[in-house]
Amino acid sequence: MTSTLEQAPPTTPDRRTRVARFLADNGALVGLVVLCVALFIATPDFLTGRNLLNIGIQVSTVAVLAFGVTFVIVAGGIDLSVGSVAALSSMVSGWFFASAGLPGWLALLAGLLTGLLTGVVNGLASAYGRLPSFIATLAMLSVARGLTLVISDGRPIPTSPQVSFLGSDVGPVPVPVIVLVLAALVASFVLNRTVVGRSMYAVGGNPEAARLSGLPVQRILVTVFALSGLFAALAGLLLAGRLDSAQPQAAVGYELDAIAAVVIGGASLAGGVGRISGTVIGALVLVVIRNGLNLLNVTSFWQQVVIGLVIAIAVGFDVLRRRTRTG
Amino acid sequence: MTQQPLLTLERVSKSFGPVTVVSDVTVHVHAGAVQVLLGENGAGKSTLIKMMAGVHQPDGGRVLVDGRPVQLPNVHAAEQLGIATIHQELNLVGSLSVAENVMMGRIPTRFGLVDRRELRARARAALDLIGLDVDVDARVGDLGIARQQLVEIAKALSVDARILVLDEPTAALTRRETENLFRVVAQLRARGVGMVFISHHLDEIAEIGDTVLVLRDGHAVAEVPASTPEDELVRLMVGRSIDEQYPRGTGPVAEGTEVLAVDGLSSAGSFSDISFRVRQGEVLGIAGLVGAGRTELLRAIAGADRYDAGTVTVRGRRLRPGDVGAAVAAGVGHVPEDRKAQGLVLDASVNDNLGYATLASTARMGLVDFAGQRRRAEQVAGTLRIRMHDIDQPVRSLSGGNQQKAVFGRWVIAGSTVLLLDEPTRGVDVGAKVEIYELINAITAGGGAIVMVSSELPEVLGMSDRVLVMRDGRIAGELSAAEATQDAVMTLATRDVAPAQP
Questions:
Q1: Contact across the interface for A195 and B363, Cβ inside 8 Å
Q2: Which residues of B touch A (CB under 8 A)?
Q3: ipTM of the modeled complex
Q4: Each residue of A81-104: pLDDT tens digit?
Q5: What CATH number is attached to the domain comprising B210?
Q6: pLDDT, tens digit, for every residue of B423-451?
Q7: Which domain holds residue A68?
Q8: How many CB atoms lie within 10 A of CB B456?
Q9: Given Cys at both, which of B6, B84, B135, B335 links B161, Cβ 3.0 to 4.6 Å?
Q10: Which residues of A touch B360 (CB under 8 A)?
């Protein structure tokens, strides 16, 4: 048996098909590079240190939010609540510092814990309560935003110095960019190296097969949503740090950016497919387009049109690729 | 019965790829008569009725309605000619009312709006045709399966069906519901409707049928009156010897220790009061017809579904109901009925699929043991001879037999000692089948125990040391390898067991 395998002619695809395969597999990355080159030619303002740092800061919030959503989408669910959870977490953190007088670092932890807990609630509702995750997290989107407004009475709350540090710079490097890199490493480690991370792919790919193999599907789902909540809280604190205050209307609609970043990065909403590196690229694509259109003085109204088309093209391209491969 | 048949399939044949499922079969359906189709699973009954319904088109032969050749390119064409099929999966919308379902596609309107009064009146008239007394405004989903079936029959008749094909209509019915259905069938027969009836319950045939066409391996083997004795029907149905393709030794099994004990296991609507023991080194076959509760029983033992009463004990440890993880930890492995839907994550690699059951148990501090998982997967892929170019290729790209070996391999890696196999060779080619049988032998030789559910009777007889026969969710009997013949199993599987029970 092994000898026939060894004798089989090695299947070396010629260089053209290999290049084509690479382009197809890394469509988002190729798109990002093309985009950057085009902007570099179109405007001298794009490739400046200041603008790149600006992009870095903007991408950090979207990407950190999207890391959590990546877990959920890989496991076959969806999380619509991350924008609201980000706002609630930063608001709770601000309240504990400004109104309850907790030490700054404890207030920061309280914010992260808030995100974790809302995520656990999402997970329980969807894994044990059998609510579709779309519905469970849609409810949380509303509840978390409502609680944010209740706590803040609709007014911004100043944040602790520790949270404000998240919005500052270390030398020339903005702290959000450092947090982004660390968060990406942690998220990637969880997804690729841990039992729970590998199980997410099985649960998203075929929940019944995962269950019949003895994987604790419900517990995995709770963990997935808890992680999503935790990353949302971190993104919320990054956002608050930049503004030195927790805003009641922070991160409104960010869940859609996060989902878009994950999907542009090559994840499948059907579950079982997705990578953190893809999500980083997806978030960069979104932010660079927005940044470039700003530099080119395109109005924000048209920006929305362009972003929408990019999402449609990215996903359409992906569907096409999958069809040609399986068909 | 000298008048012209309403419907004739004349010398029809049908193949799917290289497999011929119906070969040169002729069936007549006469007005006011019930034509029974009888045969084992896979004998070609459902392909025949799908040709009547316009779902499949015959490769050879003709379809005649009222003596004239017709084409049935689709379901709609068959309905136009008055041929209606009541499938096992009913074609109703549970969330709509009885009236809306009966009049589906023909909802009466006034000025573009639904004319509710007319809708109710026409639906009522249709239900009255078969004397069905249900509220036309009731939601269909709230009715029991028996009444849903009658609603569907009423719907068929209201579009002037003259030929009614009933595909195992009694499979999901209680005895009383069945009697009620038979009353309706008798009325329809008196009104001149021609019917085709499929049932695995031999006792129903004499009660409801006129003539019986017996099918075996796609051929019509006999056409006999419905009054033919059941023993004779069974003989006609199976009447073939088993090939020597089963490598199971037939010597007496050494008395191994008991590894699996099932006691009084019951689950409402699926099976009740099931008890049996399995010893080390033993293959216990579970035979029975589709719907006898075999798959449900196996799933309950594996922890895939909860049950209402009874216990499952593995090597003295009682398993928590509905907990697959506990069953796996106790050494139970489950090879489910449908490997694509339940066994494999198709887009994941062979390596990943082989490793799911050991992902957590071999991990260190929550981190996957990648090197070990791969080593074990490669080893098992080698011993089971899983044919692939690369252990990282998606399992979707393997052939059916190799996919099935991947599901087995997962449990081999996990060191499972009690394997529950549900249709282990379904959709697997002959060569891989024998390899799976050899694997079963290797597992039992190594001290494992196997419970195997299969609808392929020769497989059950060829590979089992003992055979349990199930019917209607109960154990109808137990046969030793020596006693287990096709006749003996089919007799137990199709006869009513109720009188035999105290």
A1: yes
A2: 302, 304, 324-325, 327-329, 334, 336, 341-348, 352, 356-357, 359-360, 363, 366-368, 382, 385, 389, 396, 410
A3: 0.83
A4: 999 999 999 999 999 999 999 999
A5: 3.40.50.300
A6: 998 777 666 777 889 899 999 988 899 99
A7: 47-255
A8: 18
A9: B84
A10: 195, 199, 215-216
